[in-house]
Amino acid sequence: MSDVIDRPLPEAEAPAKNRLRIIDCDVHPSLHARSDLNPFLSKRWQQHMKTFGDHLRTPYIGTTPYPRSSPLIARRDAWPPTGGPPGSDLAFMRKQHLDPLDIEFGILQVLDMFIFSQQNLEFGAAIQRAVNEWQLAHWTSREPRLKAAILVGQDDTEAAVAEIDRCAKIGQYVQINVCPRANEPLGRRRYWPIFARAQELDLPLGIHVGGYGGHAPTGGGWPSYYVEEHQSNAHSVAAQLSSLVIEGVPERFPRLKIVFIEGGLGWIPATTWRMDQHFDRFRDEVPHLKRRPSEYVKEHFWFTTQPIDEPDEARHLRSLIEWVGVDRLLFSSDYPHWDFDDPRFAFKTPLTEAERARIFNGNARALYKL
Amino acid sequence: MARHIVARTTDIPPGGNKVVAVDGRDIVVFHVNGEFFALLNRCPHEGAPLDKAACVARLTSPEPGVYQRSRVGELLRCAWHGWEFDMRNGQSYFDPARVKIRTYPVVIEDGETLAKGPYVAETFPVHIEDSYVIVET
Amino acid sequence: MAATRIDCDIHPAVGGTRTTLLPYLDDHWKEQVVSRAIDGLDLTSYPPNMPLSGRADWRPANGKPGSDLAMVQRGAFDQLGASHAICNVLYGAQAVFDPYMAAAFCKAINDWIAAEWLARDPRLRASIVVPMQAPDLAIEEIERRAGDNRFVSVLVLAQGETLLGRRHYWPVYQVAEKHKLPIAIHAGSQYRMAPSSIGWPSYRYEYYLAEAQAFQAQVLSLIYEGVFLKFPGLKVVLMESGVSWLPAFMWRANKTWRGVRVEVPWIDREPAAIMRDHIRLTTQPFDAPPDAAGVADIIDMIGSDKMFLFASDYPHWQFDGDDAIPPHLPASLVSRMCADNPLETFPRLSLAA
């Protein structure tokens, strides 16, 4: 009756005809292999990387005791056809992500090498420099849409500050990144020299979920399952928000801008309400706080949107967005991870044109000065 | 209802799939356990392509630590968020009534039958010794 | 006659091990406690002089807030209008490492509360304090109280030695289910590890905030380990946990489960549905949004009016004035949470004491 239609799937889709170009605040590039860092490491550290390797507070050398639900935590369609792990091939990243979604800018968040969690601090300092150089050499110098962040192991404050200064002179980085699973809560004073630098340089401080800080993923102990441990990421950022506010970091560094990346949004209102609720009763303990906690949250903190919340009722997502505040939101995809948010389909609630423009572009543009 | 010849059966090895464009839609055809299933190649969640889904057993459990497997290879775990769908009827595991993928009936016809008509293929050569996957949209 | 209003969370205070509890220790523990001066088990979570630990008008002239029965009666019943109240003793018997000492101290607390509180006021009920670190000893203590209908629940702290869903705790839940005792998880920490995934907080304020996440982790553990499958009659009450975090927590749990179900295939329905069936929360503190519309949204999002249990958290300072009910709750919810929900959650409340 009807003709056979059997033609191959089009090789590349035409770029989405969005009026709005997207700034994606969470893109994960990957190393092909650790040896990719060799050009940026001395012989000593090349050798160390090959032999002693990472020294992390976790039982395995090569994986996590909470196995993920897909290989390398990635989307199954994100493996480059030319080989290498998801996120390792710039050409494929362009083809699969940057071009079709019309990404105007993508902010790189490098998770490889566990920079923030290395127990051997000298090794950590060596690889953080290497990764910061690798970002420029392999990514941002080849693809102007991609922007690098200065990754620093926060637990060696001196080395962190030195690396921030080195990178700041180069001027190609849009953010300074530390980790929410650090030795101590990030609000603690030992980390303040990093915040001081970030404020001086007017670079946002990015905190991307993950890491091995040596503490159980929950205050009640170690969960058995990834399904629990994955959700504990939200707990870690909620706790960090509390720590930073209550220790007085925004009070002490009023121009510092702090970004929580890949923590999601849902936890923000209740954490803020809880801080405010109990502020009066604990006020005498924290006389250095001159304002109510919610005021600090509304002025000093930004939050990337992935993983977006998925309540059954669209109006509940709308309420959540309004509670957090449209101005605080930065769209992120988390490409190429499995719980990726597609900018076209992830927000299952209506947004006005103006709101879309801010969440998907304007807020990040202003924050990162793009 | 239109019937489209989309592939020779030998084009899709067991455990594999093929994506074909039919009537302006991308349809993914799976070959598993001796049968062929056709679904819209688009997850209802955020549009992920299902041809890269993991094809796994249907996994159920009456109690912690007990894993019951059935219909090995007929369950799809979407390539992105891992949502589980039954290849046979497109139903999601977590909300079979309301979240599903559009499925399409599939029949297998041999070349001899097709060559007799009325399925005259203008662009797809039909050989009588082969058998073919037909998707109905 | 006053309407039924069951206050699911008040805190009588133990003055001291060598004072309050001494009469309830056997000869061995009496000698240990006296000769080794073992005392002072007030939890780091609740230093008695901290403002939260006792509202100013609820502090006796002498002694810790909650240590004076008459004052507690005046506060919880006369002032705040409860008709009944469940006593949750937070003296840290569970937190000593020696399991036999912990068991002995827990037994002493339960004997004390029965003799000096429950016996003196028929409106009072109590949770059984147990040494969770030794599940067999915890079971012994539960069985010891099971025949006393005035004990209506089993008390554990929100931060113990390991997450509560773990298999080695299951025998405790089996016994609790058998005796229709819900597990009451109350805010407080045994400090076996950092009370937060990010490490050790500097301030008590910060610590208190982190408790909310600890409760959430416990809920996930209980659900995903399959405790409610194994013990379908079991209910778990979160006490002094905060409430407003619940909706987003439900959404995130559902979202994650949909994609990672293969890890826990015995969970064949959404975690939020399991929460609605098995988890209850006391309403102080609520940690509410500042406006009525926001509160209405939170209630709507939670999607079950059975989950709320009235509590004053007396003598902890969670609110000012005489009204322990958080503002902006709809009247229908208030009446459910004051009577129906507590009666359903703590079935032994309906039994003759």
Given as residue ranges, the uncertain stretches of chain A (5+ residues, pLDDT < 50) are 1-17
Query: Residue share in helices of chain B?
Result: under 10%
Shape of chain B: globular
Largest interface, Cβ cutoff 8 Å: A-C, 68 and 71 residues
Give the C-alpha Rg of chain A. Answer: 21 Å
Number of beta-strand segments of chain B: 10
| Most strands sheet of chain B | 4 strands, antiparallel
Rg of Cα set of chain B = 16 Å
Q: Unreliable stretches of chain B, pLDDT < 50, 5 or more residues? A: none
- Biggest sheet statistics of chain A: 8 strands, parallel
Counting DSSP H or I runs of 4 or more residues, the number of helices of chain B is: 1
What portion of the residues of chain A fall into strands of 2 or more residues? Answer: 5-15%
- Roughly what is the average pLDDT of chain B, rounded to an integer? 91
Helix content of chain A: 25-40%
Q: Strand arrangement, largest sheet of chain B?
A: 2-3-4-8
Beta strands of chain A, count? 8
Give the end-to-end Cα distance of chain B, rounded to a whole number of Å: 6 Å
> Which structural class is indicated by helix and strand composition of chain B?
mainly beta
Number of H/I helices of chain A = 11
SSE run of chain B: EEEEEEEEEHE
* Largest beta sheet: strand ordering of chain A: 1-2-3-4-5-6-7-8
Q: Would you kindly provide a written description of the structure presented here, covering whatever features stand out?
A:
The complex is a heterotrimer of chains A (370), B (137) and C (353). Chain A is α/β, with parallel strands linked by helices and 370 residues long. Chain A contains eleven helices and eight strands. The N terminus of chain A is likely disordered. Chain B is mainly beta and 137 residues long. Chain B starts with a strand and ends with a strand. The model of chain B has no long low-confidence stretch (mean pLDDT 91). The radius of gyration of chain C is 19 Å and the shape is globular. The two termini of chain C are 19 Å apart. Classes of the chains: A alpha/beta (370), B mainly beta (137), C alpha/beta (353). At the A-C interface, helix 6, helix 8 and helix 10 of A face helix 6, helix 8 and helix 10 of C.
